[in-house]
Design goal:
single chain, 419 residues, alpha+beta, 4-stranded mixed β-sheet, 23 strands, 32% helix, globular, binds uridine-diphosphate-N-acetylglucosamine
Length: 419
């Protein structure tokens, strides 16, 4: 087994390079099913979740070449044949469900294990299924599987009750080869959706409005392969921005898009962190005394739920009272329990956490309870007194490339050890 051991107290300095967004790359790999040709993904992050979705594609005979040295993934779907991924594989990662839309579009049918609950909430798939049904698919659920079939998909108007990222992506991918026009209203507007649309359009799709709450998709007969460089990971960048703030350091983060970071920049600025954009870099200076803030997670362009845990770690170290309201997932405060082991003063009431800053956190043995919670604990460890040991690293490895090496490069005292 592995754990990350952090000795807190070091100041960070220098620069760190941000990888491509996991949440862009996963749907893009799923979308390559639609191409019927060769797709090349440049600067791909070599992450567990990315490997899992590639395994899912292999079950439908996609020819995949992962070039780890050059961070390149080449996917050839010209010889695709119908197949169904094992339940075990699908349950490893909820985003496996993103192949459903492309598979229905390509084969007119698909059966896949229900992604199941996840530890951050119940995470239903009703909105995805509502979309497929509106496009003319017969959808049924039984024995732990969801099945859809259709003679052909036909464009329709679909209103999402909630701007779900996954549902918007899945419906968009199903609709690109449908007959006629599809309009998704109250669509999610996350930058990763815009990136997926950019990829699909480069393959020959006709999508407008991605990145806004109304997306229009005009169906085309077929698509072709393309080469794509995904956007930078705004959550990884945000995590390093908080690292500078929590260690009261000044660092340069290379590989950012200011527009995508706006909600995070706004909150950190409100806290007193100094942030300066220079091209596609951001210089973060957390050396001033910080103020607590109130944060409410919202769909984009609101404050991202994927940065909530990291901000909680930061608020634990800032004098005064901060409040976090989590509106996206109903059970996303598990890191609070772990932070309390480090001496944090946090009170949870339903979807609200009240955080009273303490003088200093103290290093402890903790567990990553989910991906972003794991990152939050590393951040807490960087500022804590003494040694923090973080277990259950598989959560962190799902979404952060080389996290301990990136922190080490900034001067942190951090090691991954086998025990
Ligand atoms: C994606 C991201 C995840 C991020 C989340 C919210 C990927 C691979 N993952 O997850 O990192 O935390 O967006 O920004 O991109 N919901 C329904 N019915 C549905 C679908 C969703 O009620 O059919 C609800 C969920 O339970 C949740 C909310 O909508 O409460 C948001 O979920 P959604 O936007 O779908 O998140 P994901 O796409 O799973």
């Amino acid at each position: 087994m592995e754990k990350i051991v952090v000795k807190g107290g070091n100041k960070l300095s220098g620069s760190v390079n941000i990888s491509a967004a996991k949440n862009s790359v996963l749907p893009i790999i799923a979308a390559s099913i639609l191409s019927g040709g060769k797709c090349v993904i440049k600067n791909a992050p070599m992450l567990e979740d990315v490997f899992v979705i590639n395994e899912v594609l292999k079950t439908v005979s996609a020819d995949i070449n992962i070039d780890k040295e050059n961070n390149r993934i080449i996917i050839d779907t010209s010889k695709l044949s119908y197949g169904e991924p094992s339940g075990e594989l699908v349950r490893k990662m909820r985003a496996s469900f993103l192949v459903m839309g492309p598979m229905i579009a390509r084969f007119g049918r698909f059966k896949i294990s229900l992604p199941g609950g996840c530890n951050i909430g119940t995470r239903p798939i009703d909105l995805h299924l509502k979309g497929f049904t509106a496009l003319g698919a017969d959808v049924s659920i039984g024995h732990g599987y969801v099945e859809a079939s259709t003679r052909k998909l036909i464009g329709n108007k679909i209103y999402l009750d909630f701007p779900s990222v996954g549902a918007t992506e899945n419906i968009m991918m199903a609709a690109v080869l449908a007959e006629g026009e599809t309009i998704i209203e109250n669509a999610a507007a996350e930058p990763e959706i815009e990136d997926l649309a950019r990829f699909l359009n480069a393959m020959g799709a006709e999508i407008t409005g991605a990145g806004t709450d109304t997306i229009k998709i005009t169906g085309v007969k077929n698509l072709k392969g393309t080469t794509h460089k995904p956007i930078y990971d705004r959550i990884e960048a945000g995590t390093f921005m908080v690292a500078a703030a929590i260690t009261k350091s000044k660092i340069r983060i290379c590989g950012v898009n200011e527009e995508h970071l706006k909600p995070i920049i706004a909150k950190l600025t409100e806290m007193g962190v100094s942030l300066e954009i220079e091209g596609d870099s951001i210089i973060v200076d957390g050396s001033r005394e910080l103020r607590p803030v109130d944060i409410k997670t919202m769909p984009y362009p609101g404050f991202p739920t994927d940065m909530q845990a990291q901000m909680m770690s930061l608020l634990c170290t800032v004098k005064g009272t901060g409040v976090i309201t989590e509106t996206i997932f109903e059970n996303r405060f598990m890191h609070a329990q772990e932070l309390k082991r480090m001496g944090a003063n946090i009170k949870i009431d339903g979807r609200t956490a009240v955080i009273e800053g303490v003088e200093r956190l103290s290093g402890s043995e903790v567990k990553a309870t989910d991906l972003r919670a794991g990152a939050a604990l590393i951040l807490a460890g960087l500022s804590a007194e003494g040694i923090t040991e973080i277990g259950d690293l598989y959560h962190i490895d799902r979404g952060y490339v080389n996290i301990e090496n990136k922190f080490k490069g900034l001067g942190a005292d951090i090691e991954r050890i086998n025990y």
